[in-house]
Amino acid sequence: MSRKKRIYKKDISPDPVYNSKLVTKIINTIMQDGEKRVAQTILYCALDLVKELTQREPMDVLNEALNNVMPILEVRTRTIGSQNYQVPSEVRPERRQSLGLRWIIQCSKKRKEKSMKEKLAKELVDASSGIGITVKKKEDTHRMAEANKAFAHYHW
Questions:
Q1: Distance between start and end Cα atoms, the chain
Q2: To pair with 34 at 20 to 30 A between CA atoms, which of 24, 81, 134, 145?
Q3: What share of the chain is helix, strand, coil (3-state, %, to 5)?
Q4: pLDDT of 2 higher than 90
Q5: Does some domain include residue 129?
Q6: Name one Pfam family in it (predicted).
Q7: Chain segment 59-79, per-residue pLDDT in tens
Q8: Is pLDDT of 4 > 90?
């Protein structure tokens, strides 16, 4: 039995504007070098742009984009003998959300628009409508898991 104490997750407080814990998680994912105010400005401006572009509530677009991006399956490398196998496994709900957020931010950084606000807004709109780099990344992950279904019996 492990001697370490169990580490409990910190309860994050909801952001002041949208009163949502999800928005706080996105801000913390965007944040670099502790510049939280900059990350907040980027996200809030991006959500305002989303409202202008889609004429819909920005939180609805954000939730829809996240649901379209979150992976259900992923592959994990498992070494058996001296061979490495890509074993498909189901993704836990917390990891699904964090992977989705991370992918949205990474793929929005790769876009060609001028500012990060525009990049993030366009990526959220694309992801909510089921197109974009992030949705393609999710589909690639699922395709990889499907291709390696034969190794599912190595699942641990």
A1: 19
A2: 134
A3: 60, 10, 30
A4: no
A5: yes
A6: Ribosomal_S7
A7: 999 999 999 999 999 888 888
A8: no
Task: Say if 53 falls within a structural domain.
Answer: yes
pLDDT digits (tens, 9 = 90+) for 77-127: 888 888 888 888 899 999 999 999 999 999 999 999 999 999 999 999 999
Average pLDDT over the chain, rounded to an integer:
91
For helices 133-147 and 116-128, what crossing angle results, to 10°? 50
Amino acid at 102: R
Q: Which domain holds residue 50?
A: 21-71+97-145
Look at residue 131 and tell me if it is in a domain: yes
Answering whether pTM is above 0.90, one says no
Is the separation of the CB atoms in 87 and 77 below 8 Å? yes
User: How far apart are alpha carbons 128 and 125 in whole angstroms?
Assistant: 5
CATH number at residue 124: 1.10.455.10
Number of domains in the chain: 1
Q: Does some domain include residue 6?
A: no
